[in-house]
Amino acid sequence: MTAEGNTLTVVGKVKAEQTGEYLHKGIANRDFSHDFTLAETVIVRSADIENDLLIIKLANVIPEEKLPRKILIGGNSKPVIEKVKEAAE
After folding, report:
1. pTM exceeding the 0.85 threshold for the entire prediction
2. Which of 14, 49, 78, 83 has the fewest CB atoms within 10 Å, measured from its CB?
3. Quick one: CA dihedral 44, 45, 49, 53, positive or negative?
4. From CA 77, how far away is CA 66, in angstroms rounded?
5. Domain edges within the chain
6. Could you tell me which CATH number the domain at 2-63 has?
């Protein structure tokens, strides 16, 4: 697995050819490669294999200047700006 720019590439390779007789083989046993396009603010936190499944944890990290903000309007002589922070979990 590689992350370069906004592209996440996941590559899988077959370890060894399994032998034996099968009535039905539900999952294909071949090499693969898949590219995912990520948003500019998404980063890869970690990757792990659990119960034979690839688990990729991503996080959307929004810079402070791009966070939504709340501008209060009222009896103040100068504008008051409050930053609205959302939990990124």
Report:
1. no
2. 78
3. negative
4. 26
5. 2-63
6. 2.60.40.790
